[in-house]
């Protein structure tokens, strides 16, 4: 796709979207964003647009004329508000004759929030979907502030933004793509981090949880030429950034 095409990013002040906006600006793309961000190249190539995620038609003006839309914004409340907000964005996209592609970012909850996993078949792919009934029960637990622990799926912000741009620009990209470089339970994660960064106050072990192991098949994404970083490299980058910004001493 033409690198100079105009794209729109929802929720641009959010953690995921701000990295996406940054990569777009550094690549020279013109773009609009759903809220204010202070990034290199913004003065020349970034236009800010206000839109209400929960208002039908609220994105019509912002999206009109754009060639691509990256939807990352989501309300804190899951299920109905998140679904309706996404539908509002997609309805606005449908009204734009210039639009060539929409990239929607979701969490692993769209795949793994279910209680009918077959332990003999832990590998999940793009055909796997969460259970609506299970999500409704999960929402009730969140409202009641129950502790939710389990498996940790890792994809760094740089990898997420690179993936989003790849599936937007690649002519053969279509449908869903799972993006998860590693799956570790709480105990595996704490063991890895405490051994790799012994000077940090990280527990050496966590209590084992009786939950099914879930692994994602990312071969579809890799078929586009995408390469994941290792979990060790991602955390090394994270720690180095925290040290550089003064949030941590030398590790």
UniProtKB/TrEMBL annotation:
The keyword Transmembrane does not apply. It comes from the Eukaryota. The keyword Oxidoreductase applies. Pfam families: Epimerase (PF01370). InterPro entries: Epimerase_deHydtase, NAD(P)-bd_dom_sf, NAD(P)_dehydrat-like. Keywords: NADP, Oxidoreductase. Residues 7-116 form the NAD-dependent epimerase/dehydratase domain. GO terms for molecular function: oxidoreductase activity, acting on the CH-OH group of donors, NAD or NADP as acceptor. PANTHER family: NAD DEPENDENT EPIMERASE/DEHYDRATASE, TETRAKETIDE ALPHA-PYRONE REDUCTASE 1. This is NAD-dependent epimerase/dehydratase domain-containing protein. It comes from Vitis vinifera (Grape).
């Amino acid at each position: 796709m033409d690198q100079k095409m105009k794209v729109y990013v929802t929720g641009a002040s959010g953690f995921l979207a701000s990295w996406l906006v940054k990569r777009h600006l550094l690549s020279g793309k013109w773009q609009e964003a759903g809220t204010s961000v202070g990034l290199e190249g913004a003065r020349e190539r970034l236009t800010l647009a206000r839109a209400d995620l929960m208002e039908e038609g609220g994105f019509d003006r912002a999206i009109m004329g754009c060639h691509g839309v990256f939807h990352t914004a989501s309300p804190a409340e899951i299920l109905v508000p998140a679904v309706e907000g996404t539908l509002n964005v997609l309805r606005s996209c449908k009204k734009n004759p210039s639009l060539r592609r929409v990239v929607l970012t979701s969490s692993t909850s769209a795949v793994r929030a279910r209680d009918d996993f077959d332990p003999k078949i832990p590998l999940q792919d793009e055909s796997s979907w969460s259970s609506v009934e299970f999500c409704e029960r999960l929402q009730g637990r969140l409202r009641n502030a129950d502790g939710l622990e389990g498996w940790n799926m890792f994809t760094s912000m740089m990898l997420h933004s690179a993936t989003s741009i790849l599936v937007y620009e690649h002519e053969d990209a279509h449908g869903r793509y799972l993006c998860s470089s590693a799956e570790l339970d709480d105990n595996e994660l704490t063991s890895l981090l405490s051994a790799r960064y012994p000077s940090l106050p990280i527990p050496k072990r966590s209590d084992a949880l009786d939950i099914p192991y879930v692994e994602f098949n990312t071969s579809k994404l890799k078929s586009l030429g995408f390469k994941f970083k290792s979990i060790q490299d991602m955390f090394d980058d994270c720690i180095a950034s925290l040290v550089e910004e003064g949030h941590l001493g030398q590790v």
